[in-house]
Amino acid sequence: MVSNGSKLYMLGLPQPISQDFGKKTAMAGILPHELILEILSWLPVTSLMRFRCVSKTWKFLISDDPYLVKLHMERSSRNPQILLMARQRYKSQCFMARLGSLPCLIQNPAPSSCGRILRCPKPYKYVFGSCNGLLSLHHSLSTNECEEHWVCFWNPATKICSRPSPSLRLNYGMGVQYDINFGFGYDDRRDSYKVVAMVLDSSTQRTSVWVYCMGDVCWRRTIMTSPAFLTFDSNGYSLNGTVNWIGYSFEESKFEELQIFLYDLKNDSCRYLSVPETEASEFTSMGVLNGCLCVSFDERRTVFVVLTLKDVGDERSWSRLVSVSYETLNISPYYDYLQTLCMWGDLLFLAYSEIGAYNIIIFNLKENKVERTEGYYKKVFSLIFSCHYAPSLILPI
To answer: Rounded CA gap, 134 and 271, in Å?
Structure first.
């Protein structure tokens, strides 16, 4: 006779945790401490959250043991999921988040399939970054005198959200207008998570950089740049301890060459990276593909080009990943702009939107052909960003 628990085990499903099981596992000497940590480090976060109820010892291990948190993060990051963030037009609090493996995304790239809707904890309305299983959220309020901005850190796997940051207050004055963009990354030198705010003051034509470290009591202004830097993408892209924006330096309405503004989280310093000369048309966007910064643009309204920078410390490491005609992609270059999402092997995922539809293209780089194009007309979504996401036990405090 096979018990119900044995049937669950045979099916590969989690068994119910009985009091007797909890007592047995809590007893010292059944398994070495190191072996318990090794086993737990391979389990999904959702299971670990349940297993905290087994005993006080397991609750401490799962919630507070830094070695397990680090080991679990290393294991989880080997098979990251892709996080596609899309916002429903005209509904600022409705985000469609697609969390899943890339093979699953290939089988069904629909934004509403095999995923779940992530609604930001109130009052936050915007997600602008992902790092080590934490998402960074933004909220703002404006009056006639100023605008204020708050951020927080959220672990959707554990459902734990940090307290709001101190306010970043920007005072208005005669002719003063601000353009503010956020980025999120990890400083491994100080073991600290940081939010970087790029604030462009159009009245002075200067850009100031403000930094908030998790747990700090205030924002710090670390840099004031002149000439100002005008970003194309609202989100800064995090890579290897840096946060990056693409745009132009400008002074007195005179634009300089296309550049990447790189902020070093370890040294709180910045530098500019040159982008190879191109015949770019109206848009340029940036992202991260296979651990490299990438820049995409359309060339002469006929060809879509993606450049990658292998080493952020070496401007000579630029290379052309793809150059494909819009005719091959079977779309018009006059759609809302085409951008890169992610890569898996030789497959490049692209996205664009048009009136009434949100579309994903799966393009085979090796064979230079479109594998699939999916369009969805039930709801209108505007893509915000995509990034890798690895569920973790990291506490957002």
So the answer is: 26
